[in-house]
Amino acid sequence: MTIQTFHTKVCIVGAGPAGATTSIFLGKYQIPHFIIDAACFPRDKICGDGLDLKAIGILNQIDKNIIKNNIKQSDKIQACWGFRLIHPSGKRTEFVFDPNTSDYTQPPYAISKRTVIDTLLVQQIDPEYSTFLQNTVATKIKRINGKWKISASQENKNIEIYCDLIVGADGERSMVLKTVGDRKIDRNNYAGGVRQYWSGVEGMHEKHLMEVYYPKSKPMSYLWIFPLGGGYANIGYGMLSSVASKYNYNIKSDFKDILEKDPLIADRLKNAKPEDSIRGWGLPLASLQRKCYGDGWLLVGDAASMVSPTTGEGIGTGMTTGLIAARFIQRAVQQNKFDESVLKNYDREIFRRVKDDINLFKISMWFSPKMMGWVMNNLIQLPMFKKMFQQKVTQWLHTAYHKDLVVNLD
Ligand SMILES: Cc1cc2nc3c(=O)[nH]c(=O)nc-3n(C[C@H](O)[C@H](O)[C@H](O)COP(=O)(O)OP(=O)(O)OC[C@H]3O[C@@H](n4cnc5c(N)ncnc54)[C@H](O)[C@@H]3O)c2cc1C
Asked: What domains, with CATH codes, occur in the chain?
């Protein structure tokens, strides 16, 4: 079989939200590079499909028209005005953003199937600066004389890419991470999740609220119902891996049990039907704070373990790391220097963006299941939390629509 060889300064492995964002910003900085992905887009990714204001902020920084042109009441990207918590007691608390008492009229959240949002993102990659190879699986990565050699297979041909800097954007099971670091799973900083699409789900809020339910029968775990419009929803279930092993939970069968037997959920699915099978994947949490740079390499997104430990959201944090990585790469290319010294403040810049989430997560880990149940049942519904939500969302909308993310390289 023939081998095709390429030489480039930068190669990104993985074109999910983190890798695509890195590539988009490298294109804006006019830096030629390669980006490869094992899949061909549109491709699915097991996810809750929730987009937070971090993701919306980076989308706006890419192009102000993306959200404006694509957010709709249903169809492509579902606008979502807040969330509904269903407490272990069965009580509900709804946090609905009211645009009438704010300077902002945009929704604070959005929900989009990954086949849609990830495809929208790769469409923003600039072909003038980026050679984007789909259906291309990295099979071996080696360091040779200060360069990287990436061996990849592409349908019926083999390719080799030689580069000075490799960006690991290849997700939770990252091959780049396995090459440069340690991919051992730390159960205290890792979660598992399953999801299934359903149609005909009843009882969803007219403002398309994201719903999170804390089942009484399985403390410290949560089920979500994220509406995609017209009774169609992404329903999923997740928990910290250390919780699963401590309480002997089985994520898939417990999920099925809740859907079939828990009256708070089963009643809403009595006329509904599953649209696919239950599928699971891991969530590497940012609280691990792994080292994400070194001589000639950077990690972004799930490969960098950047999922928010409090919300389970990793699309926005992954895109944030992509933008920050691109700024560091721009400087490295300008200086034609790719060693650790030129990338050394990368970790500081990425973890600064998830510091509050990590601190809140660490505090919540001190709570026993009983305390957590009490907080959910009693504290969260106090009116002051609804007021805080309205104020916070206004602040976050201001940042997402009017403030570009500024990266401090030194
Ligand atoms: C059950 C579940 C629910 C979730 N819910 C949410 C949510 O509601 N909101 C949210 O923000 N986040 C959520 N997340 C997290 C989110 O899915 C991830 O954080 C996000 O996808 C990370 O993006 P990424 O670009 O780093 O990786 P990915 O999206 O995983 O992309 C990695 C890419 O790398 C490619 N790749 C992998 N290996 C290779 C290889 N060897 N060669 C070439 N290409 C390769 C893959 O094909 C893929 O396209 C959830 C995760 C799970 C598991």
From this structure: 3-73+110-185+286-378+387-402 (3.50.50.60)
